Amino acid sequence: MPSAINVGRRPTLTDDAADTVEVHLIDWSGDLRGKVLPVYFEARIRAEIRFDGLPALKEAVARDIEEARLRLQGKVPKIGDPVLPPIEGIR
């Protein structure tokens, strides 16, 4: 299943230093809590950063998901090239 995956510490939401793995299945809905799914990594979209708040985080995640969708459809020239314009204030 195509997905966007976050591996990190969720610095916008918590100061907890524990790493988490969050998988967003693209264009799929349902409840898979408690299920085991294999995940595979194709490309890194961006580094983990602390956003100014939840709205900025949600905007970035939506853009990450769209970029993942486009990358998985083969609509990116090469790994590392940005698909979408950068979010203002973020490198």
Specify the helix fraction band: 10-25%
Largest sheet: 2 strands, antiparallel
Q: Which percent band covers the strand fraction?
A: 5-15%
Q: What is the residue-averaged pLDDT?
A: 84
Name the helix and strand elements from N-terminus to C-terminus, one letter apiece. EEH
Q: Whole-Å distance between the termini?
A: 29 Å
Overall, the morphology is globular
Tally of discrete structural domains: 1
**Uncertain runs with pLDDT below 50, 5 residues or more?**
none
Task: Kindly state the number of beta strands.
Answer: 2
Gyration radius, in Å = 14 Å
Strand order of the largest sheet: 1-2
Describe the structure.
The protein has 91 residues and is of the alpha+beta class. The protein has one helix at 54-72; strands spanning 3-8, 20-25. The chain has one domain (3-72). 21% of the residues lie in helices and 13% in strands. A two-stranded antiparallel ribbon has the order 1-2. The chain starts with a strand and ends in a 19-residue tail after the last helix.
Outline:
The chain has one helix and two strands. It is of the alpha+beta class and 91 residues long. A two-stranded antiparallel sheet has the order 1-2.
